[in-house]
Design goal:
The protein is built from seven helices and 13 strands. By secondary structure, it is an alpha/beta fold. It folds into two domains: 39 residues, no CATH class; 235 residues, Protocatechuate 3,4-Dioxygenase, subunit A. Strands 2, 3, 6, 11, 12 and 13 form a six-stranded mixed sheet that branches. It has a five-stranded mixed sheet with strand order 1-5-4-9-10, with no helix packed on it. A hairpin with a 6-residue loop joins strand 9 and strand 10. The protein is globular, with a radius of gyration of 23 Å. The structure holds fe (ii) ion. Fe (ii) ion binds next to strand 9.
Length: 305
């Protein structure tokens, strides 16, 4: 038979098989294809609409912005919500809330012990020192955790993705002390928006949505025997704090800023005038398997699997 109804075609697509393949991939692909077939039929998607969508997906892939779209359409937060639910169902103490990684992490940032200066002279904004400890969910210090920090520059752009910045600009790794303490100096970054004139902005314009993220700083915190934590902290007072394009703002991740802190004791971070400080402790869950303690970021984990 070579003439099909839509349902016959769908059945054939989902049952065609000449080898075992991957059962899980088959199951997920079948569901997604089925949902799209039904969406096309129920919404009466025209041929021009379909091919416009294919064109957009092609341009999206070429632009490297798929990770922006997944965040902007809520998928990244959904995955976090599901992991939170799994923790709750398993009776695991939560620790510091996880928050989305975003698509802009780069492995291999310069590493230093206990503290780091993340920015460079001259300061590109209000000088900020963030400090605290890495703790477990019982409140005990976690020795020698690795704190990977990255944030946008004063124009809202990230090094590696911005040709105007040096490699690893505003990206550092800090090996916390035996008492779990860490600190770093940088500046308070601004919020930023999705790139204009891009496949992402094209969709968001069509959806009537804005593409702004509130000011934030990203972290990946890893330690032996502890579950790797991906999170971000938000700077209070941002217009988009509760209207984040990526839906990533969480209670417990908005830092308190203390302005006018004396520079005494902070000279080794090149701080010589009153500055703004944020104290924040990262609380890690104990890992229940070696896999949970792998220090890789999201994409690196699956790429290495
Ligand atoms: Fe970001």
């Amino acid at each position: 038979m070579a003439e099909f109804t839509p349902e016959q075609l769908l059945e054939l697509v989902n049952t065609s098989q000449v080898a075992q393949g991957n059962e899980r991939v088959r199951k997920i692909a079948h569901r997604v294809v089925s949902d799209l077939f039904h969406a096309i039929e129920e919404l009466d998607v025209t041929a021009d609409e379909f091919w416009a969508g294919v064109s957009w997906l092609s341009r999206l892939g070429a632009s490297g912005q798929i990770g922006l779209i997944t965040a902007g359409l809520g998928f990244d937060r959904l995955i976090d919500i599901r992991e939170d639910e799994a923790d709750q169902n398993a009776g695991r103490a939560a620790g510091t809330p996880r928050a989305i990684e975003g698509p802009l992490y780069i492995a291999g940032a310069p590493q230093s012990d206990s503290q780091a200066r993340v920015d460079e002279d001259p300061p590109r904004g209000e000088v900020l020192v963030m400090e605290g400890r890495i703790l477990d969910t019982d409140g005990n210090p976690v020795p020698h955790a690795l704190v990977d920090v990255w944030h946008a520059n004063e124009k809202g752009r990230y090094s590696h993705f911005d040709p105007d910045q040096e490699a690893f600009h505003l990206r550092r790794k800090i090996r916390a002390g035996a008492d779990g303490s860490y600190r770093f100096r940088s500046f308070i970054p601004p919020g930023y928006a999705i790139p204009p004139n891009s496949p992402t902005s094209e969709l968001f314009t069509a959806l009537g949505r804005h593409g702004n993220r509130p000011a934030h700083i990203h972290f990946l915190v890893a330690a032996e025997g502890m579950r790797t934590l991906t999170t971000q902290v938000n700077i209070p007072g941002d217009t988009f704090l509760d209207d984040d394009f990526a839906f990533a703002t969480r209670d417990g991740l908005i830092v308190n800023l203390q302005p006018g802190v004396s520079p005494n004791g902070y000279e080794s971070l090149d701080v010589n005038a009153p500055f703004t400080r944020a104290r924040f402790d990262f609380v890690l869950q104990k890992a229940t398997s070696p896999d949970e303690a792998r220090p890789e970021a999201r994409m690196d984990r699956v790429a290495a699997a």
